[in-house]
Amino acid sequence: MISNTKTKLTSGAKLFVDFLVSENVDKIFGYPGAAVLPIYDELGKQNKISHYLCRHEQAAVHMAEGYSRVSGKTGVVLVTSGPGATNTLTGILNAYSDKSPLVIIAGQCEKLGCNNFQEADMISITKSCTKNNYLINSPSDILPVLKDAFKTAQTAPKGPVVISVPRSILIKEFESEPVEKTFVPKLNVETKQSNIIRMIDTLKHSTRPAILVGGGSYESASLIRELVHITNIPVVHTLMGKGIVEDLSLGMIGVNGSNLANSIIEESDLLLTLGSRLDSRITGGSDKLFKNTKIININLENNTSSNIEIYQEITGDLKVILQQLLLYIKSQNIMFHIKFDWIDKIEHIKKTYFNENLSVISSSDNRLVTENVLNIIHEYTQKYNPIVTTDVGQHQILASKIFESKTPYNFLTSGGLGAMGFGFPAAIGAYLAKPDSLILNITGDGSFQMNMQELGTCLEYKIPVKILIMNNSSLGLVKQAQKHYYGGRIYQSDMINPDFVQIASAYGIKGVTIRTVDELKSALNKYIPQNMPVIFDIHTVNFELV
To answer: 57-71 and 89-98 are packed helices; what angle lies between their axes, rounded to 10 degrees?
Structure first.
């Protein structure tokens, strides 16, 4: 049979770029090298895709993830072979842990297994931290691979994919069919009616129910609101569930959660978990938090922590299952009545932890306290409805409790992996997705130094991110663990920092040193409204417990 499909002469590199244009990709984060120069050459000939030159490939992936989380689009990264490709691994694993759709295109040497220059088998290396990965062996592979890669990244559960391509295929000319946009079918995985009936029966017979909202609830906020309105069941959330229905939530649970939220879980007899895998940061590595609680878990993946006993596991599309649940409740005119003693118990817990301090410090130190600093920053910036990114450490724990999030993209953090160095590049990506928003990067002195070279990216592309460094000259969370679990022996968690204001100046960026509350308030008043990047070097107390 003769095909009527028209073909045209193209090169592998041009086909890559034409496909990205067809997918409405408008931003790429990357770092060039010889293996991918053919793609860079084609990018330079067009004006529909903007490329952002990062200073490190790990940061490029974090930028793409920040961009993806805020824009809702698939983030795209372009790097060269060998170390260019392997430098992306932390970012890839972070995106895999937090279910962010990314496509990483990496150059490859001509033949693996020959000890070639910059040889790195990215297919083997990334097998455990991607949804799929692809090695392109011929020009005819390009379109099928690209289509499947974007479809895979965008299909829930979303996540990163890696495409490895040799330079010889990028420069080869050949006949190719026209490029068309990839169709990604909507997920529609419902559950059996018997599961819905059993779930409702369990909910009705519960005397102390609670709902836990996790990061997998991202697209189900309105349905969760409706369920809470009908049932009046109290709500708590995980770190990655922050911003989904935060105005309804009584707080964040987990190892670093609030006493209020954790106490509600401990006192409950039934927990309906929505889009959470109940990992060790929630449970603390034991089942103590849920020892008296039946758990109904609704999640797209059956990946709940192995040390948690699940009463009813429902695997499927949370949005569809909630629709099924609400439809059945309405059709059967089912009424839910929360017991007064459970309401009274929750009110008692609220009073117990009213105005609880989030941190404890040494009274002999007169420097700024991180909790107070973040409260002031929140007070001064909440009118802007900022997008907040954090790194990992004590500042992350405190920021997650202090900053209110109206949407999931208002608070970006590294949840599953806990990657120091995520926050600053993610903030750059967030700005490029939503340039009219105020972007705050709340970071620590240790975390910021992981990727502070991206000040060059800020300078080059005029990214007005506000970088607020909690500078305590230590790795605060590590030191806290040493105080707690290692007899107070402090080793390798104190450090000498550079002058961050001088570093900012070297990049042509404004920096300000802050040591008092008055200096902090003055700097926020002066620099938050200005459309330029600013480093706030905030010197805080050397040791806090959070």
So the answer is: 20
pLDDT recorded at residue 361: 60
Q: What are the backbone dihedrals phi and psi of residue 512, each rounded to the nearest 5 degrees, phi first? A: -140, 135
450 Rama sector, left if φ>0, alpha if ψ -120 to 50, beta otherwise = alpha
Structure tokens at 80: 């060269």
Please calculate the CA angle 25-27-29 and round it to the nearest 5 degrees. 125
H/E element, 500: helix 500-506
Closest by CA to 545, choosing from 379, 274, 357, is: 357
Q: Which residues pair with 474 in a beta bridge?
A: 494
Q: What is the DSSP letter of 219?
A: T
Residue 364 has a pLDDT of 45
- Residue identified by tokens 């109940």 is 278
Q: What distance in Å separates the CA atoms of residue 316 and residue 64, rounded to the nearest whole number? A: 28
With left for phi above 0 and alpha for psi between -120 and 50, is residue 496 left, alpha or beta? beta
Burial of 1-38, coded b for 16+ CB within 10 Å and e otherwise, reads eeeeeeeeebbbbbbbbbbbebbebebbbbbbbebbbb
* CB 503, CB 452: distance < 8 Å: yes
Residues of the chain with pLDDT under 70: 1-6, 112-114, 185, 187, 284-289, 303, 305-306, 356-366
Peptide bond into 157 cis (omega under 30): yes
- The string of pLDDT tens digits covering residues 201-238 is 999 999 999 999 999 998 899 999 999 999 999 999 99
Cβ-proximal residues to 169 (8 Å cutoff; 6+ apart), any chain: 12, 136, 137, 138, 139, 142
How far apart CA 64 and CA 56 sit, in angstroms, is: 13
- Of 190, 231, 189, 239, the C-alpha closest to 211 is 231
Q: How far apart are CA 290 and CA 293, in angstroms?
A: 5
